[in-house]
TrEMBL record, chain A:
Main localization category: membrane
Name of a matching Pfam family: BPD_transp_1
PROSITE patterns cross-referenced by the UniProt entry: ABC_TM1
Record's keyword annotation contains Iron-sulfur: no
Lineage, opening ranks: Bacteria, Bacillati, Actinomycetota, Actinomycetes, Geodermatophilales
Designated name of the protein: D-methionine transport system permease protein
Subcellular location per the Swiss-Prot or TrEMBL entry: Cell membrane
Family the UniProt entry places it in: Belongs to the binding-protein-dependent transport system permease family. CysTW subfamily.
TrEMBL record, chain B:
Protein's GO biological process: amino acid transport
Keyword Cell membrane: yes
UniProt keyword Nucleotide-binding present: yes
Segments forming domain ABC transporter: 2-243
Oligomer status and interactors: Homodimer. Forms a membrane-associated complex with FtsX.
UniProt GO molecular function: ATP binding; ATP hydrolysis activity
Function noted in UniProt: Part of the ABC transporter FtsEX involved in cellular division. Has ATPase activity.
Cited Pfam families: ABC_tran, NIL
Keywords linked to the UniProt accession: Amino-acid transport, ATP-binding, Cell membrane, Membrane, Nucleotide-binding, Translocase, Transport
Name of the protein in question: D-methionine transport system ATP-binding protein
GO cellular component, one term: plasma membrane
Protein source organism: Klenkia taihuensis
Length: 219, 331
């Protein structure tokens, strides 16, 4: 048990790295994914501003992002990462592929959420003389908010699981920790501890997201 | 106030199917201050018609004018502005679940850029007008159907429109709520001097609130006019829809007379002659008389069960000459 004093700080660092990667990429994903989802809905054939080619191109990009295994994406976007961060190694560098991987995921969830807002409500706003952007801002987004919160929660949870792969490019984090200390050193107890830690984080997030979404839905 | 001229609306057929003609050359003129109804069976084009008035749907051809402005000629930007002076109420209320009753009423004002204090004041006034002042903070899900529609009416009135469009506004409500909502609509029309266009498939709604109505069938206006006028016409399909002809039990013997009751031709005139002068035994075989558009209107079927019929035809001719609407039903 003496090695725990050696491992504990490393575990704390790894947890910090995971939280850092997930928090930053989640924020960026929300910033990019929600507008992208809105754009997908608005440009759809039955949307507020139908635009066939924009819709198709966006749909294609989103599908491309969704169909790539994350580990492949990680390698594929390396040049982009180098351009943006200056390096392809480390937690900060991992944020780039994490965000690129999660944005299409969230965009689809946002699209689905917004589609569930009844057309009648949109029409009611149009009948009041709403501009298209006002319809998005005062009808689509607020009416879909509970479902959007649920979508963001699912995305953040997915980001945690993606982030575990970031170790492959030296991004650190809990996944990397589990591989280096648990798997490679035949320390199943460390692997299990990491799993438990991840489970706790995911549970906390999911619970928080569910509670928030439920509170919004009960309004 | 509302004028549709030769309006046609054709929806392209799906997947190579035939085009659907929803409205086939409709003319409609609703004068300012009128409470006008459009009735017709489902699929007759009513919903399309009302959605054309604020251009939620654009006509394929023909023009739409509201308050002297030809909306179909206006650029999109001005159509949007024109819409804010046309309130609309929907069958399924379409309130925002994310907003309280008061916030829903404020919604159109918010869109128009009205300041918060003024919005608050206006929504409080309107919720008071519709009798829901104490539910201002309630969410739509906490309100009954009738209450939701009242909030929706308050919302439709927020931007001080001159025209109110009601799209099957009571069709999702129970009888008591329907009566309440119709009374409210009638009252706001009177108090605010609105012009109201209401579409419905329920004849009772038209009879309860409308001054005038048109009957729409398969995308065409087949009949219409002021109700007190329409109901005096025997050959009017709209009148027949509003006050269905009574059917007598043909197992009972006797001579049948059909009487159209109007404000100027009460059934009393007919009965006085039949019973009083000719001494016939008369019973009501069917029908009803109700108050519509402020006057008594109805259709009655009278059965002469006993008496000397020799003078009947002469008497009927004379009654008709004096203005009564009565005729013998061919046996």
């Amino acid at each position: 048990m003496s090695d725990w004093s050696r491992i504990a700080p490393q575990l704390a660092d790894a947890t910090g790295e995971t939280l850092y990667m997930v928090a930053v990429s989640a924020a960026l994903t929300v910033l990019a994914g929600i507008p992208l989802g809105v754009l997908l809905i608005v440009t759809a054939p039955d949307g507020l501003a139908p635009h066939r080619w924009t819709h198709r191109v966006l749909g294609l990009l989103v599908n491309l992002g969704r169909s790539l295994p994350f580990i492949i994406l990680l390698v594929l976007v390396a040049p982009v990462t180098r351009g943006l961060v200056g390096t392809t190694i480390g937690s900060t560098a991992a944020i780039v592929p994490l965000t690129i991987g999660a944005v299409p995921f969230l965009a689809r969830l946002v699209e689905t959420s917004l589609r569930e807002v009844s057309h009648g409500k949109v029409e009611a706003a149009l009948a009041m003389g709403a501009r298209r952007r006002q319809v998005v801002r005062t009808v689509l987004l607020p009416e879909a908010l509970p479902s959007l919160v649920a979508g963001v929660t699912v995305t953040v949870v997915a980001l945690i699981s993606y982030s575990a792969m970031a170790g492959a490019i030296g991004g650190g984090g809990l996944g990397d920790f589990a591989i280096r200390f648990g798997y490679q050193q035949f320390r199943t107890d460390i692997t299990l501890l990491t799993v438990v830690l991840l489970l706790v984080v995911v549970q906390a997030l999911q619970f928080g997201g569910d509670t928030w979404a439920r509170r919004l839905a009960r309004r | 106030m509302i004028e549709l001229n030769h309006v046609r609306k054709v929806f392209p057929g799906r997947r190579g199917g035939a085009d659907v003609v929803a409205l086939d050359g409709v003319d409609l003129a609703v004068p300012a201050g009128d409470f006008a109804g459009v009735v017709g069976p489902s699929g007759s084009g009513k919903s399309t018609l009302i959605r054309l008035v604020n251009l939620l749907e654009r006509p394929t051809s023909g023009s739409v004018a509201v308050d002297g402005r030809v909306l179909t000629d206006l650029p999109a930007d001005q159509v949007r502005q024109a819409r804010s002076s046309i309130g609309m109420v929907f069958q399924h209320f379409e309130l925002m679940d994310s907003r309280t009753a008061a916030e829903n009423v404020e919604h159109p004002l918010e869109l128009a850029g009205v300041g918060r204090a003024e919005r608050r004041r206006r929504s409080a006034d309107l919720l008071d007008l519709v009798g829901l002042a104490e539910r201002a903070g309630a969410r739509p899900r906490q309100l009954s159907g009738g209450q939701k529609q009242r909030v929706a009416i308050a919302r439709a009135l927020a931007a001080r429109p001159q025209v109110l469009l009601c799209d099957e506004a009571t069709s999702a409500l129970d009888q008591a709520s329907t009566t309440g909502v119709l009374e409210l609509l009638r009252r706001v029309r009177d108090e605010l001097g609105l012009t109201v266009l209401l579409i419905t498939h329920e004849m009772a709604v038209v009879k309860a609130v409308c001054d005038s109505a048109v009957l729409l069938e398969a995308g065409r206006v087949v009949d219409g006019g002021r109700l007190d006028d329409v109901l005096t016409r025997d050959d009017s399909p709209l009148a027949a829809a509003l006050l269905p002809a009574p059917v007598a039990d043909d197992r009972v013997a006797g001579t049948l007379l059909r009487v159209t009751v109007t404000e100027t031709a009460p059934e009393a005139d007919v009965l006085r002659v039949l019973v009083g002068r000719l001494g016939l035994a008369v019973e009501v075989a069917g029908g009803s008389v109700e108050t519509v558009a402020g006057g008594r209107h109805g259709r009655l079927l009278l059965r002469i069960t006993d008496g000397d019929l020799s003078g009947l035809d002469t008497a009927l001719t004379r009654l008709r000459a004096e203005g009564s609407k009565v005729e013998r039903v061919a046996a």
